[in-house]
Amino acid sequence: MYNNFITNKLKKTTMNYKDLIKTFTADDFNKHSVNLHVHTGYSDGKADFNDIVKQAKDKNYKCIAIADHNTMNGYIENGIPENVIPAVEFDCWHGYVFLHMLAYGVDYNNDSLKRFFAKTKKETELDIIRFFTSRRAPALIKAIHAAGGIAVLAHPACCWCISMDRFVKDLIKHGLDGLEVYYPYERHRGIIKFHSRETVEKIADKYGLIKTGGTDLHTEEL
């Protein structure tokens, strides 16, 4: 029944992606029945796009979002599968802070958004090249909204900012919709973590932001 509900929601306008994500609970993310942060071979992941979709179906996931770095070629070449929210994770800057911005429910044919896509494969997989991006958060968020999507700050605890509250508040002025609250902070993300997940969740609650989550999957198995 729940999967039918999601499928029906995804068939409607892109504005419903925001409502859909709001229905997901902490348990959905923590128990891995919803994963809104998955990478495939279209960027720096090892998984096959269609195989990940099949795995999600076989494992009875409620919903996933494949959010490859700076590209939506997976959707362009394969379409948008059922129970998958079209997504992309952009590298960008806001002031002196380098960050990753997740865009959910976007139309990859939108001209405003297309200009932010990677021009080469290396821009989707090599950290050193991605670090030198010219994308800026205010313009990117505007484009995400123009493409019918929502903008969510990925793994916020890794953002090098003195005050997470002030940083998020400033991004809200530019239209930020949500924070990735349910995130494992494993491997190098745990080493470079400057804030706590608890702080991130409190800020999301304080400003009424959408709370998302995912494993940041880069392996072959969901």
Structural class of the secondary elements? alpha/beta
| Whole-number mean pLDDT | 90
Individual helix count: 12
Rg estimate, integer Å: 16 Å
Question: Unreliable segments (pLDDT under 50, ≥5 consecutive)?
Answer: 1-15
For CATH, the homologous superfamily is named as Metal-dependent hydrolases
Rough outline:
globular
Q: What proportion of the residues is helical, as a percent range?
A: 25-40%
Taking the sheet with the most strands, its summary is: 5 strands, mixed
Overall strand count: 7
**Portion in beta strands:** 15-25%
Taking the alpha carbons of the first and last residues, their distance comes to 22 Å
Number of separate structural domains: 1
CATH topology-level fold name: TIM Barrel
CATH architectural name: Alpha-Beta Barrel
Kindly summarize this structure in a few lines.
With 222 residues, this protein is α/β, with parallel strands linked by helices. 39% of the residues lie in helices and 17% in strands. The protein has a single domain (2-213), classed as TIM Barrel (Alpha-Beta Barrel), CATH 3.20.20.140.
Essential attributes:
222 residues; five-stranded mixed sheet; two-stranded parallel ribbon; 7 strands; 39% helix
Describe the SSE topology.
Elements: H1 2-10, H2 16-23, H3 26-30, E1 34-38, H4 49-58, E2 63-66, H5 73-78, E3 87-94, E4 97-104, H6 111-114, H7 122-125, H8 127-131, H9 137-146, E5 150-153, H10 164-173, E6 178-182, H11 187-191, H12 197-206, E7 210-213
Parallel strand pairs: 1-2, 5-6, 6-7
Antiparallel strand pairs: 3-4, 4-5
